[in-house]
Amino acid sequence: MKNIFLSALSVRVLLVSGCLFATAACNQSSPGGNGAETEAAAEEAGQELEPLTTENAVEVLTAYGQKHPDSLAVISTRHGDIKVRLYKDTPLHRANFVRLTKAGFYNEGEFYRVVKDFAIQGGDSDERKMSQGSYKIPQEFNPKHIHKRGALAMARYGDERNPDKESSSHNFYIVTGQPVDLDELRAIEAQHNMKYTPEQVQTYLEVGGEPGLDTEYTVFGEVVEGMDVVEKIEQEPVDASDWPRRIVQHTVKVVES
């Protein structure tokens, strides 16, 4: 089974002395003050959002999600647009994606890992200037949301470093995958101690995806338009590390609630 580990990003994300490096330096939060209150004050003043920390991330994202119920976004690339729907029953992941989108954070990102018949991974860039802070998002596994073709999910560090399977603060991926057979699904059910619904079984058999990632990574949305664009990105020539030889930059905008 392939994995969507942040360690696959090589120099793009490094864990050094307890700090998560998205570019060249560890992000520091502003001292003092309640996280949610500081966040609200910054937004009202029209300033850049405060970088989050492990200590305040859940509080800030919970408050932000209540204030911003947005659930549709468009990821734009040189190949075209991908419209995604964000699930409201994964509230921390939805709020985090909306928050970074509205701050313009994802407009400095790119699809930097492309694995044919598996997934395209984006959200980061070596050229990034904006800081989002050093934090992870608690996993929000939901049996309703599987890694079907077109699923939107968050990357994470591996189990040895991250036993609670917390998500990355910003690295996301879109599943491509292929149809799977019933024997494979039953083996995954046994391995992960889960049971697919008849509808989910049909989806994997007919549409495809990556069931081996279920219960391992948080799915928080899905593509509703633009899978043809995902397929074009999936066809990009890559190097030995699965990085596209030609940059596939992306911008993201919220289009409605």
Automatic annotation (TrEMBL):
<protein>
    <recommendedName>
        <fullName>peptidylprolyl isomerase</fullName>
        <ecNumber>5.2.1.8</ecNumber>
    </recommendedName>
</protein>
<dbReference type="InterPro" id="IPR044666">
    <property type="entry name" value="Cyclophilin_A-like"/>
</dbReference>
<keyword id="KW-0413">Isomerase</keyword>
<feature type="domain" description="PPIase cyclophilin-type">
    <location>
        <begin position="80"/>
        <end position="248"/>
    </location>
</feature>
<dbReference type="Pfam" id="PF00160">
    <property type="entry name" value="Pro_isomerase"/>
</dbReference>
<keyword id="KW-0732">Signal</keyword>
<dbReference type="InterPro" id="IPR002130">
    <property type="entry name" value="Cyclophilin-type_PPIase_dom"/>
</dbReference>
<keyword id="KW-0697">Rotamase</keyword>
<feature type="signal peptide">
    <location>
        <begin position="1"/>
        <end position="24"/>
    </location>
</feature>
<dbReference type="InterPro" id="IPR029000">
    <property type="entry name" value="Cyclophilin-like_dom_sf"/>
</dbReference>
